[in-house]
Specification:
With 351 residues, the chain is α/β, with parallel strands linked by helices. The chain has a single domain, classed as 2-enoyl-CoA Hydratase, Chain A, domain 1. Helices cover 45% and strands 11% of the residues. It contains 16 helices and nine strands. It has helices spanning 30-44, 69-74, 80-97, 114-117, 148-151, 159-166, 172-177, 190-200, 204-214, 227-233, 239-248, 252-261, 266-279, 284-299, 303-313, 331-336; strands spanning 6-11, 14-19, 51-56, 61-63, 103-107, 110-112, 124-127, 132-134, 183-184. It has a six-stranded mixed β-sheet, with helices on both faces. A three-stranded parallel β-sheet has the order 4-6-8. Helix 1 links the parallel strand 2 and strand 3 (51-56).
Length: 351
């Protein structure tokens, strides 16, 4: 008998979802998204449930992202799977963002991409010593979706734009500083938080009080020393200007960011920068509708498949982007990713 990819259970008055693909770093499949959505909808109106908790099985990851191999196999020919996957994933992200009860995500280990989408929109995000948080999509010829348009531009200063473009990996201290996490506890104490919530939470307000009582602050973030540079460089209007500013800075950290950006898809970089600008003033559902249109354009293109091939399939880490240079990605091409969509390429929401 195959083990469930996500274990859904009620413990005390908490609904608990455990992502159960540790060998795949708990990457999300469409069936997992459906099971989580079904459970959340059921618990939303269940008076016996006062809060929801989501965690990952194993010690390596909360969730390292969406399982994009199925998307890769389509290679732009049949977009029906991609259309279904992104529709249901974004519906789940929105359900979590608008959830009326406390939603606690225990995000120790890898939390990337799709894993961010099922955690960062919750009311409490608890990091641990092994947390590695990132939105690395520009490295696979994609862009930071799952609500990245909404939460990244709202992080302090220009840290969200920096994260979106570079795919920067944050530890627990950095995640707390950037406000993608709300709480910290040592990794070996996370099970205590889970147990206390399941044993003691009797009303919704108890959830926050219990988390408060068992969490604290991690060591100071080393990211602080780079914030002035981040806020200056990543406030510039174009990717080309950002690269020029980093090139002019001879510091090791600036040169590291320059090198990282040089590995990313030029198309993905320009679309992502536009995404960060567009996302500043739009509401969450509008952001998700915009992302659905962008996602369908990416999966109908070439860089996404080349990025997945190079990083996840062949693992040669040598993607050949088309086009190769930022200068060859026109403004008209970037704008086309944000063109209004209709028909099959519009996103509906669960009610």
């Amino acid at each position: 008998m195959n083990e469930a990819e996500v274990i859904i259970e009620t413990r005390g008055r908490m609904g608990v979802m455990t992502l159960n693909r540790p060998e795949a770093l708990n990457s999300l499949t469409l069936s997992m998204i459906r099971e989580m959505t079904k459970a959340l909808l059921s618990w939303r109106t269940d008076d016996d449930i006062v809060g929801v908790l989501v965690q990952g099985a194993g010690e390596r990851a909360f969730c390292a992202g969406g399982d994009i191999r199925m998307l890769y196999e389509g290679k732009g020919q049949d977009l029906s799977y991609a259309r279904g996957f992104y529709t249901e994933e974004y519906q789940l992200n929105t359900l979590i963002k608008e959830y009326p009860k406390p939603y606690v995500a225990m995000i120790d280990g890898f939390v990337m991409g799709g894993g961010v989408g099922i955690s960062v929109h919750g009311s409490r995000r608890v990091v641990g010593d092994s947390t590695l948080f990132a939105m690395p999509e520009t490295g696979i010829g994609f862009y930071p979706d799952v609500g990245g348009s909404y939460f990244l531009p709202r992080l302090p200063g220009k840290t969200g734009t920096w994260m979106a473009l570079t795919g920067a990996r944050l530890n627990a201290s950095d995640a707390m500083y950037c406000k993608v996490a709300t709480d910290y506890a040592p990794s070996d104490q996370h099970h205590m938080i889970v147990n206390r919530l399941c044993e003691d939470a009797q009303v919704c307000d108890d959830v926050g009080l219990i988390v408060d009582s068992l969490t604290g602050r991690p060591a100071p973030s080393e990211l602080v020393q780079h914030v002035a540079l981040i806020d200056t460089v990543f406030a510039l209007e174009t990717c080309e200007e950002m690269l020029a500013a980093l090139q002019a800075d001879t510091g090791d950290w600036a040169q590291k960011q320059l090198k990282i950006l040089g590995t990313k898809s030029p198309t993905a970089l320009k679309v992502t920068l536009r995404q960060m600008i567009e996302g500043v003033n739009i509401e969450f559902r509008a952001a998700m509708m915009m992302e659905y249109g962008i996602s369908m354009k990416f999966v109908a293109g070439v860089d996404f498949y080349e990025g997945v091939r190079a990083l996840l399939i062949d693992r040669d880490h040598s993607p050949v982007w088309r086009p190769v240079h930022l200068a060859d990605v026109s403004e008209a091409v970037v704008v086309s990713y944000f063109a209004p969509v209709s028909g099959a390429d519009t996103l509906s929401f669960l009610e």
